[in-house]
Amino acid sequence: MKTIIAPSILSADFANLARDIDAIAKAGADWAHIDVMDGHFVPNITIGAPVVKSLKNATKLLLDVHLMITDPRKYWKDFQKAGADIIVFHIEAVKNAKELIEEIKASGVKAGISIKPATPVSEIEDLLPILDLVLVMTVEPGFGGQAFMEDMLPKISRLRKIINDKKYNCIIEVDGGINGETSKLCVYAGANAIVSGSYIFSSSDFKKAIDSLR
Fold first, then answer.
1. Torsions phi, psi of 183, nearest 5?
2. Cα–Cα dist 195/95, whole Å
3. Active site positions, annotated
4. I need a surface site. Which of 31, 43, 88, 116 has the fewest CB within 10 A?
């Protein structure tokens, strides 16, 4: 399958969000990645479900919603109702991840889990059979524009080996410090979905930036 490109709207112009979403769609993006931060689980505050609802009406792109929040069980339904196509939560934020994955999937949307840089693959390995996506953070979550952590590459490779060996239907997504060079390292390691924010939105040519990530 081709590499999925999911520009992170965290780096878009929020005064012209519909315009920017339309521009990345025309430039060849596959998904729109939406970073939801609560100022508690991570040290930043971004957006909530009303913005997702507005975007759902403004684009045909798949909405990939990454919940970097302390209590995803309390809030995930708001994002599902708002139009999220994939809901990704952090393994570090829940006690019973399996139960939450099953609840999300039962609602008709795809379920993903994200792992911070310090969290090993072993923490989520038993969940891979029921997951649609694993998001490997290649920076500490919270702010855009950070430097890529190359020591996360073995984690991607380990996930790819497990998924291939067991024939699981699970996408490996990466997020953090992704540009034209680091994306190649991630794809080579086994990732098949790339999140990139500042690299795309700071470019004068969105299509050229997106193409370079593939």
1. -65, -40
2. 27
3. 35, 175
4. 43
Using pLDDT thresholds of 50, 70 and 90, give the confidence band for residue 45.
confident
Sign of CA dihedral 22, 201, 36, 149: positive
Q: Per-residue pLDDT averaged across 154-182, rounded?
A: 97
Identify whether the C-beta of residue 12 lies closer than 8 Å to the C-beta of residue 21: yes
Domains in the chain, CATH or no CATH each: 4-213 (3.20.20.70)
Distance CA 81, CA 97 (A): 20
Whole-angstrom Cα distance, residue 57 to residue 54? 5
Burial 156-188 (b: 16+ CB within 10 A, else e): bbbbbebbeeeeeebbbbbbbbbbeebbebbbe
CA dist., res. 92 & res. 113, Å (int): 10
